[in-house]
Structure formats: C-alpha cells, structure tokens
C-alpha cells in the first residue's frame, strides 16, 4: 500500500516537471528577437539610361530572387517613346533590271519561270533601211551597199559599174559601159530633222562612158561613144515592206523581204559626144519606185538638148543576183526614151555588175564576182 502511494507521487512529480519545462521553453522563445527583414530596393529613377532599365528588367525576371524582392521591384512607366521619323528617304526612282533566270532553273520540273516585261517597251528604229552591212550580216539584212569609209551615218557609198550595153537610135550598136556611182542616203538627216525630214531626199550621181544618142539634126543620126552624167534626187515618201519566200543564203534579191519606197524623183545632167565639143543638158522629173535601194523603176518626162520635143522616159534597173554579203550585184538595165515627133526612139539594154571599192582592193573577195557560185 505504501508502494502505491509512492508511485503515484512520482508520476505526478514527473508530469509537473514536464509542464514546467514546456512552459519555460515557450517563454524563452517569445523573448528572442525576430530576424531582420531584407532592406527594400531603392526605386528606379525615371530618367535612367537604357542600360539601367535593361539591368532592372533582368533583375526582375531572375528566378533566384526571393518572392518578397520580386514584389518590391519598381518598373519605370514614364520613359518617353522614341520619336517618329517625319522625313523618310525618298523611294528609289530607278528601275532595277529584272533578274535573269538561267536555263538550268527553267528546266527544273515543276518550276514556273516568270518573265517581267521592261518598264519601257523596245521601240522600232526610225531608219527605214539598215544603216550598215557587214560580211557577217545575214542575207536578209543586206539591203544597202557597204560604205567606202566608216561614216557615222553609214549612208554614203561609192561603187564601180561595168558591163555590156546595146543601144538603138535608128541604128544598132553594141558597146561597153563603165561608170562610177556615188550614193547618198538621207536616213540619218531625216531622223534628226524630225517632222521636216520629208524634205530630205536620197541622192545619187553617176558619170558614165558609153554610147549615147546623137542629136536629131545630125547628118548621120544614130549613136556614138560619149560621156554622160546624171544626178538623181528621190523623196521616198511612201514606204512599206513586202515579205517574200525567203531562202537561206539565197543569191536572189527577190527571195528576201523587200523594202519598197515610192516618191517623186528629179534627175539632171548632160550628154557629151567625144567627137563633138557641145554639152547637151538633160532634165527630167517624175515618179520612182525603189526596192531595197538596189533597184528601181521610174517614169519621167522632160527634155534633152538636141532631141526634139518633150520626151517621155522609162528607166528600170533590176538586180537578179547578189553575193552572200550583199555587196556585189548583177543588174539588168533598160531605158526607153520617146519623143513627141516621128523621130526614132532611144532604146537601151544592158547587163552590169555593181561592186564596191573594197572588192577591187581585196583579192580574197574576187570570188564574189562569179555569179551563183557557192
């Protein structure tokens, strides 16, 4: 019995001691100073530099800063916005060249090549005839003789002509024909003259040694050897082209596209017989049709001193062969001169070769004198 009382007393004492110890611990904890809070960051200046703003932003977005620090960061909201540019640079006025699509790109399957048209479409040249001809030019472009020198316009030429002629003026005579002919085409001058270009003609001048008709009052009428000169002026007012059945490298001028021109013509000159001292002046005017400048047909009316009355005249020069470079040509020439009285008409016919000076001085080109030779 005594033992039980003692056990109860010990248990009570232990319980009381535990309560005292617990109370003492709570009292000590309440008297300890609380831990100090971290200092608040200073607010950012409103006029801080851009680099400071970047640092502040980086600091705010860092994941290693405690939540209390993130909530205390001050973000500047009154930074002035950047000024807008009120004078933008002008747009480019020059047109860029379209990119060239190579052949390899266009051959790729499924690739569609886009071809851009130029801003300014090409304009056809104002010259009706090509300005120059070279030996490398295609036959279809050989519409003009080769210039003697390298003039800028390429419209001045000197050619030699030689051949056979038959003349009938109440008699029949076979004779030779030798001449030098100067060509002057006004394409370049007409282009510069603009609307006044129709005043400028194409011109040619030829001096010839051949048989000429004697005057009607001669005691022995007929023809005789003499010197003749003619200067022709033609205004090609109506011009057009006619396509033909073109053949590659054909020597026939009519197998190529023809450049035709129609307009008034005037020719003046003189005839002089070697056995006489007189010069008989001639003057005619009419209409001429030219094709490729290498041939023509004309009708004129006028007078030749020594031949009675007003004369009507038809002259034709038809080229029937030309070399590959178009420089050497063979012609058929015909003339009919008719008077108002019963005097005999003048009939002429001949075969001529027309060649530039360069052919005579270049032996390598002598092969062009042989017609229809490949």
Keyword list:
374 residues; alpha+beta; Lipocalin; ten-stranded antiparallel barrel; 6 helices; 11 strands; 17% helix
Q: How helix-rich are the residues, as a percent range?
A: 10-25%
Radius of gyration: 54 Å
- In percent terms, what proportion of residues is strand? 25-35%
Main structural class: alpha+beta
Which word captures the global form? rod-shaped
> What order do the SSEs take from the amino end to the carboxyl end, as H and E?
HHHHEEHEEEEEEEEEH
Numbering strands along the chain, what is their spatial order in the largest sheet? Answer: 1-2-3-4-6-7-8-9-10-11
CATH architecture of the domain at 145-369: Beta Barrel
The gist of it:
This protein has 374 residues and is α+β, with helices and mostly antiparallel strands. It has helices spanning 2-31, 50-61, 67-72, 103-106, 187-193, 357-361; strands at residues 156-168, 173-184, 202-213, 223-234, 238-242, 258-273, 280-291, 295-304, 311-322, 329-338, 346-356. It has a 10-stranded antiparallel beta barrel.
List the topology elements.
Elements: H1 2-31, H2 50-61, H3 67-72, H4 103-106, E1 156-168, E2 173-184, H5 187-193, E3 202-213, E4 223-234, E5 238-242, E6 258-273, E7 280-291, E8 295-304, E9 311-322, E10 329-338, E11 346-356, H6 357-361
Antiparallel strand pairs: 1-2, 1-11, 2-3, 3-4, 4-6, 5-6, 6-7, 7-8, 8-9, 9-10, 10-11
Structure description:
With 374 residues, the protein is of the alpha+beta class. 17% of the residues lie in helices and 33% in strands. It has 6 helices and 11 strands. It has a 10-stranded antiparallel barrel. A hairpin with a 6-residue loop joins strand 8 (295-304) and strand 9. The radius of gyration is 54 Å and the shape is rod-shaped.
């Amino acid at each position: 019995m005594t033992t039980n009382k003692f056990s109860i007393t010990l248990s009570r004492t232990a319980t009381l001691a535990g309560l005292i110890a617990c109370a003492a611990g709570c009292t000590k904890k309440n008297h300890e100073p609380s831990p100090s809070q971290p200092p608040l960051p200073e607010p950012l200046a409103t006029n801080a530099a851009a680099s400071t703003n970047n640092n502040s932003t980086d600091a705010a977005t860092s994941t290693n800063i405690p939540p209390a620090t993130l909530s205390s960061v001050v973000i500047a909201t009154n930074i002035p916005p950047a000024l807008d540019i009120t004078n933008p640079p002008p747009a480019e006025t020059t047109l860029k060249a379209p990119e060239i699509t190579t052949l390899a790109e266009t051959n790729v399957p499924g690739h569609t090549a886009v071809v851009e048209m130029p801003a300014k479409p090409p304009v056809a040249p104002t010259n009706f005839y090509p300005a120059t001809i070279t030996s490398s030019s295609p036959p279809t472009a050989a519409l003009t003789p080769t210039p003697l020198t390298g003039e800028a316009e390429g419209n001045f030429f000197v050619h030699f002509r030689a051949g056979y002629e038959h003349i009938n003026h109440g008699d029949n005579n076979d004779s030779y024909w030798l001449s030098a002919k100067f060509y002057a085409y006004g394409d370049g001058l007409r282009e510069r003259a603009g609307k006044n270009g129709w005043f400028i003609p194409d011109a040619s001048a030829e001096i010839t040694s051949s048989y000429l008709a004697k005057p009607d009052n001669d005691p022995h009428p007929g023809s005789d050897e003499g010197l003749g000169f003619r200067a022709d002026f033609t205004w090609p007012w109506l011009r057009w082209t006619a396509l033909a059945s073109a053949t590659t490298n054909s020597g026939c001028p009519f197998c190529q596209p023809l450049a035709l021109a129609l307009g008034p013509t005037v020719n003046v000159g003189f005839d002089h017989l070697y056995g006489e001292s007189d010069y008989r002046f001639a003057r005619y005017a009419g209409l001429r049709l030219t094709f490729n400048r290498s041939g023509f047909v004309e009708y004129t009316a006028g007078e030749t001193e020594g031949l009675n009355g007003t004369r009507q005249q038809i002259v034709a020069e038809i080229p029937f062969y030309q070399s590959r470079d178009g420089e050497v040509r063979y012609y058929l020439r015909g003339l009919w001169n008719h008077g108002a009285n019963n005097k005999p008409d003048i009939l002429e016919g001949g075969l001529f070769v027309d060649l530039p000076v360069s052919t005579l001085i270049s032996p390598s080109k002598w092969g062009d004198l042989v017609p229809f030779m490949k």
